[in-house]
Amino acid sequence: MKTWKKILPLLLALLMLAGCGAPAAQETVPVPAAPADVASADTAEDGDYKVLNVGRMAELFDMDSTIATEADCLEVISAIIEPLFVTAADGTPVNALCASYETNEESTEYVFHIREDANWMNGVPVTADDFVFAWRRLVDPVTASEYSFMMEVAAVKNATPIISGELPIEELGVSAVDSKTLKVELDHPVSYFLNLMTFPSFCPINEAFATELGSEYALGADKLLCCGPFYMSAWDVGGNTYQLKKNPSYYDADKVNLDEINFQIIKDPQQTMLAYENGTLDYVRLSGDQIVKYQTMDGFTRIEEGYLWYLSPNLNPKSEKYSCGLENENLRMAIALSYDKDVICYEILQDGSTPADFAIPNRLAIGPDGKDFRETSPLYLQTDKAKAQEYWEAAKKELGVDEVTIELLYDDSDSTPLIAQFLQSEIENNLPGVHINLKSQPKKSRTELMQNREYQLGLTRWGPDYADPMTYLDMWTTGSTYNYGEWSNEEYDKLIADANGDLANRYEERWEALKQAEALVMEHAVILPVYQKGTAAMVRPGITGLAFFPVGVGTIYKDVDVNF
Amino acid sequence: MFKYVLKRVLISVVTVLIILAVLFTMLHSMPGSPFNDEKITAVQRANLEAKYGLDKPLPVQFVNYLKAMLSGDFGVSYVIQKNMPIASLLRARIMVSIRIGVQAVALGTLIGLLMGIVAAMKRNSFLDTFATVVSVIGVAFPSYVFAMAMSYFIGFRLGWLPLLYSTADAARSTVMPTISLSMFSMATVARFARTEMVEVMGSDYMLLADSKGISSFRLLGVHGLRNALIPIVTVLAPLTVELMTGSLVVEQIFAIPGIGSLLVSAIQFNDYNVVLAVVFVYSIMFISVMLIVDILYGVIDPRIRLAKEDAST
Q: What is the ipTM of this complex?
């Protein structure tokens, strides 16, 4: 007992020591206060100090606007360095750093006038040279940006030869007429050009600042020069938090409601919801399997994403190994009509995804008539089991067989295996004689196999890069990298070439051509659509202005307000 | 002694080289690349590979990597923090993981020793049974069960401690992760301590010391414990490394920016350099700890030191 009395107090003392201790060595970057403290302290005492606490599922990979590709990064970059235009709530581009612009008759030349009162945080004005520097950096082979193709999509002169190293970056069709005037030359008109300008890849970068930092540029909160509604006040690089604060030198600062935005990275969806429920976080994304559980909770908000999930048949296989009858259009039509998309969306996924009877998803692009592409286009390949069987009978006759065996390739992640299994049972039940073998692969392998055309039927998805149907339609031209099935159709190729060429600034005709293109893809069952991805978020009541865009910058934080 | 240590160090260097070579080959044979394979074109891929030297043959890449490593350059991350030098990326994360790991081992060992000693001294009493039950629970339940339970009840329901790790509030926010990680060490150490103490206390030299009139505290602490410590030190070494290298699930539950979650993310994203650097760090840590333990043996138990000296002469 005596020894006990000696040991016990010592132990308790040691336990107390475990609770304190020197702070871990940190980078010399200012560190944000714990979100819970800020939310309770500031909003309570100083009612005007508005804080938004956001939950994130992944680290901030990259803050260099010419290299970043992840949605999280694009959102933050666009909040700290404004592009020329930003997207309004209705999806149309509105002036941001651009005060006004002119274009020539053919729409192959744009002249942008940059706001006179737009300045970087170090007091230097934002100039046209900043844009020229950034755009050249985007296409520079040395930068090796994964988004350099956006310059090609924008059809800026010489983008393609510069990216492949044939021409120097100075040949890019962008120049500074004077310090506040930017001139852009295009190879052909692009009807959605202003929409593209909302993309952070086209943001300006202050050349002096970036050159001075060299390879360190954007690798820390103090290694970024900002000119947007917010600036990056803290970034625990390699850690789990980063913070934005209102930029006092922003030209429109009095329209910015939020004073501070804290981002916390939590990879566990359950913990994320706990943090939401106890007030630590105000806006979090839900994972697929949480949606059913929380859909009745206050703040539940559905989000429609732009991803289209579809089956890609290999209809021009390069060898016998991958040939299974899908070369036959009737067989493809049969399969397309044989599975119940409602069950997939509303019973298996239950995450807000909707059945896809089209190739161009809902709310992707607005036409010259002011309406969404989907609104004025028909639906295709809707589930019809009776018709599916008719097509199957026709296919059997044409192929001269009674049975076919097809290998279905898919990712082994999330709910995809469930969908694959369902598709297998639907197809086999409704088309007796069709046998589906399942082949599950990790996503990277699955992608590689399809890129090498080493598959028969693949379940895949495509996300839009910009708000125009072309982001999908140009996948299926002859020889396109993403034309996994190697479909080739002269009429289709012509429609796409026209849309990019002759019809480029005859907007109504171009829109018609795009509709005809989609019809061709659907009527020949080049792809068999399954569903359009949906997801959801918890947005604490009291938050306003939080919009979700399926393409480009997902959320514009400038417009957000909180009133808890 | 010196020759012994030198020999061990040399073997370690060769071991690490082999580990890196095998890992390098494995990483590059994994499907996919660090880049967005779904979308990039052939030209972009070529530019990216040229930029990072990934277009060179594998042996050349490996040699270049080793050369850079010798000058402290572990390369840059391709995905997780694009173009960030890995040394900076690792530094902050390692400190967090080490801190929590050391705390967990210290807490676990302390409490484990206490429990073990008490159980040994009060053999077959209620305390002994209690200690055994706690030990079994500590070993049987994975650390994340404790983590989730504490996170929910203490963090969420009662709000006594922060739910998530925060650099600004590191002290308070590491308490729950430390406790959940310490359970296994505590249970293991307790069992070992009890067994060893029982054996030691029943031995002849203890009887002699006791009969000489040595105080019970000195008896226990100096004569008993020191002998019982050897197997405990054996177990502690790999345990410490295991904890320092981060328990992935606990890190995920408390949103701790540690090494474990970095490694898993890096593997998922094919971030080659990060995986290599982290494994390299793991190997060095493990090998160093084993070396230290070996030296400690000599200190704790003179018989081992003498035997080694005899063997090396």
A: 0.83
